[in-house]
């Protein structure tokens, strides 16, 4: 699956891995495109097999809003019902700060790289 790319807009690619699905997101997620972000999360969850992991690789994101984080946390809860784990890869200190400032550090599993997210380290 792949989104339609426009300049500085949210877009993504997804690929399968033995552990589940890796979704790489680019651009930024803010109020004007949160619905596209939610669609990406729902579509990813729909394609992930039971007992697998969805890794959202956000290292190429420039910005994530609190609303985007709430949607990610909600999808994580919804996916647990299908025994699917959702994990976020994020390296930007600015986005990590938003996770903390929005009070989402307990609701979102954030990892520094894809390998550690796939392993749950």
From TrEMBL:
<dbReference type="InterPro" id="IPR003658">
    <property type="entry name" value="Anti-sigma_ant"/>
</dbReference>
<dbReference type="InterPro" id="IPR036513">
    <property type="entry name" value="STAS_dom_sf"/>
</dbReference>
<dbReference type="Pfam" id="PF01740">
    <property type="entry name" value="STAS"/>
</dbReference>
<protein>
    <recommendedName>
        <fullName>Anti-sigma factor antagonist</fullName>
    </recommendedName>
</protein>
<feature type="domain" description="STAS">
    <location>
        <begin position="10"/>
        <end position="121"/>
    </location>
</feature>
<comment type="similarity">
    <text>Belongs to the anti-sigma-factor antagonist family.</text>
</comment>
<dbReference type="InterPro" id="IPR002645">
    <property type="entry name" value="STAS_dom"/>
</dbReference>
